[in-house]
Design brief:
Number of strands: 0
Strand content: under 5%
Oligomer: single chain
Helix content: 40-55%
Radius of gyration: 19 Å
Distance between the termini: 20 Å
């Protein structure tokens, strides 16, 4: 199990945060890291990209190929390769972080019920016939 798979914090501002943190839907964010440093900038237009960002569009082609392989893999899978284990780990981690930040005012933001709900989610996920379908039960 890769516990680092679910890493988006609530309120992170990411485009997919609402799907993961609010709706509990699995999301994929594929991209490259490094010196690029531009995220939804008014400067990342076609001119900037073709002259500075990725002049040969090699990163664009590489990521398009990766996305294509992921799409084919998911489309042809008899059983989707998704589990609730990573999400459960992340939910518990998010909740522990919230408790640490909320130590002074625990009466104003009671989180014990959230631990119970996460445990119920875990139980529902492990009660499925196929663990890889646990998130869809």
């Amino acid at each position: 199990m890769d516990n680092a798979l679910v890493e988006t914090r609530i309120g992170s501002g990411s485009d997919h945060t609402v799907f993961l943190n609010h709706l509990g839907r699995p999301v994929i964010n594929l991209g490259f890291e490094g010196d690029y440093g531009v995220y939804h900038s008014m400067y990342d237009d076609h001119y900037w990209m073709s002259h500075i960002g990725d002049p040969a569009f090699e990163y664009h082609v590489a990521l398009t190929r990766i996305w294509g392989l992921v799409a084919l893999r998911l489309a042809n899978a008899d059983i989707l390769p998704l589990t609730s284990a990573s999400m459960l780990f992340a939910l518990e981690q998010f909740l522990r972080e919230l408790e640490q930040q909320n130590k002074a005012e625990q009466r104003r933001l009671p989180v014990k019920r959230l631990h119970v709900r996460i445990a119920q989610f875990e139980k529902a996920g492990t009660s499925c016939v196929t663990p890889s379908l646990a998130i869809f039960c």
